[in-house]
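Why does residue order matter? Because the sequence determines the fold. Keep that principle in mind as you read this record.
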Amino acid sequence: MTKKKGIDKVMSVWKAQNKILLPGKRQDIKQIVNELARLFSHSSFYYLIMNFDIADIDYVSEGVCDVLGISPEKMNLEKFLSLMHPDDLDKMHQKERTSLSFKLNKIPKEDITKYKTVYLMRLRHADGSYRTILHQSKAFTVSEDGKVFQTICVHNDITHLNPVIDHKISFISQECPSYYALDTETELTLIQNSFKELFTKREKEVVNLILQGKSTKQIATLLFISIQTVNCHKKNILKKSHCKNTSDLISTCIKEGFI
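Structure:
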């Protein structure tokens, strides 16, 4: 598939499923900055504001210089989509179709802003290499006719974690039921799972430190426990999660919305 066809497919999904007829009041970017703290994790990131009424990007933060090596002024929707890995662009319309199907058809209008959408993609850096991006987006305004109006998207560079790109999608909420690692190639079926609940409070602390790249010795120091205890926690975590090793655990945590 050519890039143009891939971009056209994504745009057609937005036009067909999220065509805004009654925009309502457009919210000032400054009013939603506090939402960022809930969305980004411990890695390099930038954020952008997507406006579905005009099908373009309203604002891009300076962090895009560090993550992708380009200036915010050069980033618009067409540029963003053109930077996407061809294989990911080919699947992008499926992920966006699933995302809109969930928000517009599966949950009440008043719950749209309570969820963040999470999936993986690869974007091309200015040096020609591809960076693996954890995409986390959250609608913060809804149009008067119940469509997604403005969305904040936080893009974390998690290349160092080397996750497997599988085009799964998660819908995560602190107030409503969450849905993790859903298939985007078939009709949306909501299946709840409890990956996070597999672990004890201490095990969750260990997992979070593993995701931050901490060594066994560093984890022991930070949690004031012995190296042997850390290794015991790791063994239990891998057993509970059915992961073969730490790399497999990291990849699974990303796919299941743990971070």
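DSSP finds nine helices and seven strands in the chain.
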